[in-house]
Amino acid sequence: MADDADGRVYYVISDLHIGGDEQLGEVDFLEELIAFLERLETTDEDVELLINGDAFGLWEITEIDGLAKFDVLTDRYSGLFEQLRATGASIPVTMLPGNHDHDLAAYDEYVDRLAEYNVDLVQAESVTRPVGDRTIHFEHGHQQDPNNRFEDVGNRHETPLGYYYNALVTSRAGRLSERGRYNWLKDVQAVTPTERVPRWLLSKYFYREMNPLLRYAVLPFLLLLNVSVVLAVLAGLDVAGVWAMPVEMADAVLDQLGYVGETVHLLLVVNAAVAGILLLVGIPVYFVLRDFRQTVDRFGIFETDLTVDPDEPYKEAAREVFAAQPETAIFCYGHTHRPKVIDVDGRLLVNTGTWLKRLHRRDVAVGVLPPVFYPSYQLCAVRISAETAGVTVEYEEIEKSNPSPIEVTRTERLLTLGREPSSNLPDRSIVSDTASDTGSD
């Protein structure tokens, strides 16, 4: 289907998070981003590019204050800014501030600074654009997140909870990352939701930082711990006279395996003993901790989680916009780094994802071992246009031309065999002209 001849095509990207202290200053997708901008510079379509918040990681630049952060960006990424200048000379390029680059809304000087590179900085929470006979609502999305919301947008002194996490944790990780056996700590910004950070740290310690001899020494015990817990319970039943264990049969099978059988038998005996002790200690500890959690919940000490619900606040915000502005067909946002399209009352809620590395948690297939976090990139631009059938939303995948080195060890791949994540972008979606239904191709 051909685009409406009188309609503009919008490309939307967000959450680039360019910049940060030390290792955070590395941009894995810089080549792909410049190539994307070069393509828009030479397009024959009537196009506008919207950078929908968090273009820059200004929160993560902690050793410099104010407008000097912009000088760091233009010096470090001069090729990118020159390409923005070239692309902006050919098509409109509009930028909205996010929470990580809230400074863009706090200093009026940024408008002129970015204008030098042909970027129109809009110091507002949201903008709208016409598409055919309808409208698109754009916002970064952090105002729907209680941990990153600004009560006074543009106030350079306001610092929500998310600021402290990024300034104290993420930035610090960038400065320390190279000290590891593998440069992985900088990826803390790719761990979402933030509640997963402790498990991610445990995972990286076990699979990357732990002394290899120690890791491979404890690996058999951890792999067999599930079996050992069952054996410990059965042994307890045997002692209590409730059920007799078929010890002779098991020993006969292991005897046929020779030294291997003897090793397995020894591991099972030791593991069963350890598992029995853990069960004896763990059961009362479990009840104490459960009672403590219930007490904390009664007092309401922690009223919110560290991270926002990934969908519900944005559905509510979209419903409010759709009710106040019935001509709106699309509510487009970023912030949560999850590319997705959701039908909301016949209109579309569209998340533009992120260009940062994403980490996908996968539990191991056997044993009691830390989960594995698989890395991936979902570089994409959302294309919104008016067509005969209505307003269309398409995700254009941008292939990563320079893949990162393998970051998942053989041990991790073996333990999660068959559980590797697949990273598929949403299908093409349409809001019909009547706004009564939506469809996906």
Quick structural gist:
Helices cover 39% and strands 18% of the residues. It has helices at 30-41, 68-76, 78-90, 103-106, 109-115, 161-176, 197-209, 212-223, 225-239, 247-255, 259-299, 312-324, 410-415; strands at residues 9-13, 47-52, 93-96, 120-121, 126-131, 134-139, 328-333, 340-344, 347-351, 358-362, 372-376, 380-387, 390-397, 429-432, 438-440.
What is this structure's SSE topology?
Elements: E1 9-13, H1 30-41, E2 47-52, H2 68-76, H3 78-90, E3 93-96, H4 103-106, H5 109-115, E4 120-121, E5 126-131, E6 134-139, H6 161-176, H7 197-209, H8 212-223, H9 225-239, H10 247-255, H11 259-299, H12 312-324, E7 328-333, E8 340-344, E9 347-351, E10 358-362, E11 372-376, E12 380-387, E13 390-397, H13 410-415, E14 429-432, E15 438-440
Parallel strand pairs: 1-2, 2-3, 3-4, 6-7, 7-9
Antiparallel strand pairs: 1-12, 5-6, 8-9, 10-11, 12-13, 13-14, 14-15
Descriptive report:
The chain has 441 residues and is α/β, with parallel strands linked by helices. It folds into 2 domains: 9-208 and 305-440, Purple Acid Phosphatase, chain A, domain 2, CATH 3.60.21.10; 224-299, no CATH class. The protein is 39% helix and 18% strand. The protein is built from 13 helices and 15 strands. The strands form 3 sheets. An 8-stranded mixed sheet has the order 4-3-2-1-12-13-14-15. The chain has a 5-stranded mixed sheet with strand order 5-6-7-9-8, with helices on one face. A two-stranded antiparallel ribbon has the order 10-11. Strand 8 (340-344) and strand 9 (347-351) form a beta hairpin. The longest helix is centred in the middle third of the chain and has 41 residues, at 259-299. It starts with 8 loop residues before the first strand and ends with a strand. One of its GO terms (biological process) is lipid A biosynthetic process. Keywords: Cell inner membrane, Cell membrane, Manganese, Membrane, Metal-binding, Transmembrane, Transmembrane helix. This is Phosphoesterase. Pfam families: Metallophos. The chain crosses the membrane at residues 213-244, 264-289.
